[in-house]
Design goal:
Two copies of one chain form a homodimer.
Chain A lengths: L5 E6 L7 H15 L4 E6 L5 H12 L5 H25 L4 E4 L6 E3 L8 E4 L2 H8 L3 E5 L2 E3 L5 E3 L4 H12 L4 E6 L20 E2 L1 H8 L8 H9 L4 E5 L7 E3 L13 E17 L4 H11 L4 E6 L6 E8 L4 H14 L4 E14 L9 H11 L6 E5 L2 E7 L3 H11 L7
Parallel strand pairs in A: 1-2, 1-9, 2-6, 3-6, 9-11, 10-12
Antiparallel strand pairs in A: 4-5, 7-8, 11-12, 13-15, 13-16, 14-15, 16-18, 17-18
């Protein structure tokens, strides 16, 4: 048994939303074990359990202290993992559920968004050596005082990748209700094509618009340890998408997919005196308020005055304006404008910036559709435009066709 | 803070069944702390949570292995304790929830009915020393391997009493939806009177008919360590009943209450050869099958043949007959009769057996009502009769009046 490879599987909340789906997942795990593979499973809370627990907390507390919220929410994954272990035993697969504590997942003390410090997987290895499939409650760990913590957004994905690394697993397999990584959102462009594989960096850029497939934090961790991650559906047997950095990667230097995001609000500070320290004065307080600033663009200076534009999530717009207004006033800026009717579209592909013509073709395609570009930013593997929210879908479809993303590689 | 007495409170599932009741319990705890008392609270799962989790388990597993059931059910008390700690903080009471593991409750490995081996209350004491109210998930502990166990029926009551003993608490206060210990069931006899206090042994005899007030296992543990236990309602401020063995106890040697039980099935083995070892041959296999035998009566021997009668819970009747029939046949007994239309009524009071007249008055009262007595057994503080099920209520009312239990002490 000891020589067989270890696979860490992760099943999301929708995959275990009710008893029938839990039994379905148990059958999938049983099949995965058939060739002798040793399987460790990380599971999220069933369907709406976490939301239901949060609603209860809101009814008893206006403050909802983070330590107690972590203790409360950890129960959701404990329930799912125990039920899945039972369902496995019911079909003849020896299985055992472990909490984050029992699985040896140690974190820092930052409740509700803890980071994993280390994993002491002795208990997991012991149970695998006994021939058992080990089911681990995702999203949770413990501090050195044995207080329960949760890992925050994407926590179960991060649990799974971290456990795969600690167990020297051959791969991590992440199952959810989508079949893999697509060239773009199939709800917008029906010809969107599922990718057979994709590199870590491209995955990060594609995932940044919506973390449902695999949380960016988990992608970064997998990248750091070069762990292959398969993302696939728990409802079908269709092959998924392999995220990896190996030699079988598809040709680089080409467009791989189009990401989009409706959650964009823009703030423009006009007539900013062009002197050192202005950006720090503005963005320091925003960071202190835990507001994530996305795109930042500063226009060329004219008469020693410049326009500074940045985007934030729509939810953060009001707080951002409250923070920025007095600062803008202090530094002598002319005025502030805000716009929420915006969306973001990104063309992603390795090395695009080094290959002439991609940006030009992208801008021409949008112009042919009569779409006006509000802002442009680029990274090594991405060209992003901010456009009108109402034109995002049209832009996605036009770019998908222009870059022939529906064609098989 | 250190010099203040510690009180352990226990709130049952009905007391924390929804958000409003949890907030109500939080306000009660806040009042209890007002004089500086250090409060530790043991809490059960909310209302139907445990039943809901069992129903889920039944949908995924026909076998429901005990280790995984314990892991599953432990989540119910974790949820309730975290919510109660939040509700306390919301009204300005510094509070922290602890799981059975964090509270240092170590048990044996008998899942679903574990026994507490010891409690290492260091973490609890540390938190009390910080001025915090400590909320502990009842019903659960851990093995030396840190596997979660549950304590079985009456588990949260036992958690509370054991914690009170380990913490050298001044008392344990057990809150539920009944106001205390009554002279008999108020639903049968409206003149039933709540007792101000009662001894451990009397409580055990009264509670044996229904363990809703305080589980017998918890009573026995309190008795062993002479820990006073107050039972009272969490919905009113009415004074409850103090269970204790102290000097302020009400006069002994008098009737204190009447217990009854409808869950009685009788098995009579007729024509049993009167020789040593027969009882062992019968009751050993029943004990091995975990069937609890209540009353045992053996009639006087006649022609070296005797009739042996015993009672079990109605649920256990069929299995008991299956076990007993071949044994009765082996030992040459004549036949077996079973009767399920029976009930049990007990008159309870310290030292009754040493005080002439109680039994006679009991039997005369029943005779005056035309009630036929099927079996009689007695202990030092109890006289029990088995009668027709249909006559139990009449018997309870008649005895309550005959022994003037409605009168204030």
């Amino acid at each position: 048994m000891n020589g067989q490879p270890i696979i860490v599987q992760k099943y999301g909340g929708s995959s275990v939303a009710d008893a029938e789906r839990i039994r379905n997942v148990a059958r999938r795990i049983a099949r995965r074990r058939a060739d002798g593979t040793r399987v460790v499973v990380v599971v999220s809370a069933m369907g709406d359990t976490t939301d239901d627990l949060i609603a209860l907390a809101q009814q008893v507390s206006s403050t909802r202290p983070a330590r107690e919220m972590d203790a409360l929410l950890s129960a959701g994954e404990i329930i799912a993992s125990a039920l899945l272990a039972m369902a496995l035993q019911d079909i003849g697969v020896d299985a055992i559920s472990l909490t984050g504590l029992q699985a040896g997942i140690r974190t820092d003390r930052v409740h509700s968004k803890a980071r994993i410090l280390n994993i002491e997987p002795r208990r997991i290895v012991d149970e695998l050596d006994r021939g058992r499939t080990v089911i681990i409650a995702g999203f949770q760990g413990v501090t050195s005082e044995l207080d329960v913590t949760t890992l925050g957004r994407g926590g179960s994905d991060t649990s799974a990748v971290a456990l795969a690394i600690a167990l020297h697993a051959a791969a991590c397999e992440r199952f959810t209700d989508v079949e893999g990584v697509f060239t773009t959102d199939p709800r917008i462009e029906p010809r969107a094509r599922k990718l057979r594989d994709i590199g870590y960096e491209e995955m990060l850029e594609l995932a940044s618009a919506g973390s449902k497939i695999l949380h960016p934090r988990a992608v970064e961790l997998a990248w750091l340890y070069n762990l292959p991650v398969l993302v696939a559906s728990s409802f079908t047997d269709a092959p998924g998408t392999l995220i990896h950095g190996g030699p079988s990667m598809e040709p680089a230097n080409k467009a791989r997919g189009i990401a989009h995001d409706y959650d964009v609000a823009k703030i423009t500070i006009r007539g900013v005196p062009d002197r050192p320290g202005i950006a720090a004065a503005l963005f320091g307080p925003l960071a202190d308020a835990a507001i994530s600033v996305d795109t930042i663009v500063q226009n060329a200076s004219l008469d020693n005055l410049t326009d500074l534009t940045f985007t934030v999530a729509k939810n953060d717009l009001q707080r951002s304006l409250e923070i920025v207004r007095p600062i803008a006033s202090d530094i002598g800026a002319r005025d502030i404008a805000a716009d929420t009717n915006l969306g973001k579209v990104s063309l992603v592909g390795t090395g695009m910036q080094n290959t002439p013509g991609y940006a030009a073709r992208m801008f021409r395609t949008l112009a042919d559709q009569g779409i006006n570009i509000d802002l442009i930013t680029t990274s090594e593997i991405r060209i992003t435009v901010i456009i009108k929210e109402s034109e995002v879908e049209k832009a996605v479809r036009a770019l998908h066709a222009a870059f022939e993303l529906d064609r098989e590689d």
